[in-house]
From TrEMBL:
Keywords: Oxidoreductase. This is Aldo/keto reductase. It comes from the Bacteria. Pfam families: Aldo_ket_red. Residues 16-318 form the NADP-dependent oxidoreductase domain. GO terms for cellular component: cytosol.
Amino acid sequence: MKTTTLGVSGIACESVGLGTWAMGGWMWGGGDDAAAIAAIQASLDAGVRLIDTAPAYGLGHAESLVGQALKGRRQQAVIATKCGLVWHTRQGEHFFDEEGQAVHRHLGRASIFHEVEQSLARLQTDYIDLYITHWQDAGTPVAETMDALLDLKRQGKIRAIGVSNADPGTLAEYLRHGPVDAIQERYSLIDREIEATLMPLCRRHNVGILGYSSLALGLLAGPIDPARRFTGDDQRAGNPRFSVANRSRLQGFFAELESLCQRLDCSASQLMIAWTTRPGGVTVALCGARTPQQAMQNAGAAALELSPEDIAAIDQAAERHLQTLD
């Protein structure tokens, strides 16, 4: 499997990590806790170390599942979790409501210190490998946020600092106050905006890049039956990207790449994940999974090597079929 390090932290992990947003249940039509725990353990068994989670994923539920799954195996994992989406206080800007709780964006010092203790308890650990500001808080100076994170690092409660959902100016402000080991931003074959914005800044400052939604919420995981219905609070139900017309276009895209998948002996989803970690792509592709089978398939992408010709074939197929996605 391809291995890498997170910025200047020296923390090693594979080029594929496990994302646990869907395990929290919220916005994904509920979940199966036993299957989620098995998926986390299957990821470790397959050689994937980085497990990405957050308090907002089910109001602490996903973190608790990670803690349960890692009992007796903590040293095998690199845990990334987050701060800044809070429901213990009404400070900051109201962002959304989750399960009857008002969630605010807030990255004040006292709040971060409260959050880290809650996460450590749910994760059943005494340190977090990578601690990420989940969404940015315009009402708190970055200097205050970074000062709190650096203090937690000195205390040994976190090993590395990350920033998510930030623009280049905000990232540059973080870097003025201390080292940032990684950013976490949306990145996939159909979400490439950071190539022109954040990636150049990260390259200059040796900041690792964690790409979330590597499969675009599952849209790039392989052909989806146009007749499939998404129900309950599953966010894909109202997402125009998952329209019947788009799913039909994607069937043509994947059909064109079928021979490439056969030659490389990989699935369509593995091909899409490997594309995101190609040279010039992200450091780690974060991939969601809710079953052991999904986790093991995602992990297989870390062993997949794409040639320049393979990458060109994928890009050309995307130009032909995906430019017209609604």
